Amino acid sequence: MKLPMIYSYLKKDLDRIEDAMTNTIRAEHPVLEDASVQLLRAGGKRIRPVFVLLSGKFGTYELPRIQTVAVALELIHMASLVHDDVIDDAELRRGKPTVKAKWDNKVAMYAGDYIFARSLEYLSKLEEPRAHQILAHTIVELCIGEVEQIRDKYRIEQHLKDYLRRIRRKTAILIAASARLGAIASGASLQHERALYRYGYYVGMSYQIIDDVLDFTASEADLGKPAGGDLLQGNMTLPALLACEDRFFKERLTQVFRNPEALDQETLQPFIQHIKDSDSIKRSLEISDRYLQKAYQELDKLPPTRDRNTLKQIARHIGKRSS
């Protein structure tokens, strides 16, 4: 079953969120508007708005309030992707030219800033100080995660905890905030809010680990970019870290990382193949599954509703996804 089928009963509300996002990023300047709409038109899973909507079902579900949070969170995610593509010098995202590729780095940075600003402006409709504090803290953590990723590029000597801390800040905390803020916007109980936050955190960790695995195992057509892109950028993701337990592999990778300017797809192909042939992929998936099991345990603390079941199905889908 495809992911959108799992939450198909939310389609009407998701369509309203999509319309609201389009209206929110409209700009008077044509370049700024075109650049901002570029990524929106490229689509995406919209998994964060889905988590907001589903979490909102555990309180008093009022779409205008829930929508405010969902739109703001997805726009923050989009803005971070625009900035990511500048940092990673990425030409493609979801199979389409990035903002920096179609215009340039300066336009991309300002487009990302613009989307960030519009998201915060949109969230100001929600008179809930705690929601604003949580979102501000989330953005701070997101920025720290990005800076840590830049710092750790081409650094072979890393521990597992370095990687886990990085993906917590880069990915998990925004998904956790999506689940938590949906609960807050609907006035759900503190007990349910905490369970949803932890569910989002564990799912987010699993989601990023699966993403990092797919970067090695999925096809270029599925990824919308060449496989092994993380390693090419010098990013030591979980499969690469585990593969470095092989001393010979680690020594060879250390040598090629000493000259990042000379790295290309052909040079890294033997390393990518080694990772695919080793047990690194299997062990990464096992770590991902441990996070999913914890996510299921948090769902057991929620009432047995259709929405709880949907959250469980989404977690299962994330654990099995191939693109």
Please explain how this structure is put together.
The chain has 323 residues and is mainly α. Helices cover 74% and strands 1% of the residues. The chain has a two-stranded antiparallel sheet with strand order 1-2. Helix 2 (11-24) crosses helix 5 (63-87) and helix 16 runs antiparallel to helix 17 (306-320). The longest helix has 28 residues, at 190-217. The two termini are 13 Å apart.
Query: Could you say which overall geometry the principal axes of the C-alpha atoms support?
Result: globular
Low-confidence stretches: none
Helix-strand string: HHHHHEEHHHHHHHHHHHH
**Considering DSSP H and I runs of 4 or more, what fraction of the residues is helical?**
over 70%
Q: Mean of residue pLDDT?
A: 91
State the major sheet.
Answer: 2 strands, antiparallel
Q: Give the beta-strand count.
A: 2
Residues in β-strands, percent: under 5%
Strand order of the largest sheet: 1-2
The number of distinct helices, counting runs of at least 4 residues, comes to 17
The separation of the N and C termini measures: 13 Å
Tell me the radius of gyration: 20 Å
What would you say about this model in short?
The protein contains 17 helices and 2 strands. The protein has helices at about 5, 10-25, 30-40, 45-55, 65-85, 100, 105-125, 130-150, 160-185, 190-215, 220-225, 230, 240-245, 245-255, 265-275, 280-300, 305-320; strands at about 90-95, 95.
Architecture blueprint of SSEs:
Blueprint: H1 3-6, H2 11-24, H3 30-41, H4 47-56, H5 63-87, E1 92-93, E2 96-97, H6 99-102, H7 105-123, H8 129-152, H9 160-185, H10 190-217, H11 220-223, H12 229-232, H13 238-243, H14 247-257, H15 265-277, H16 280-299, H17 306-320
Antiparallel strand pairs: 1-2
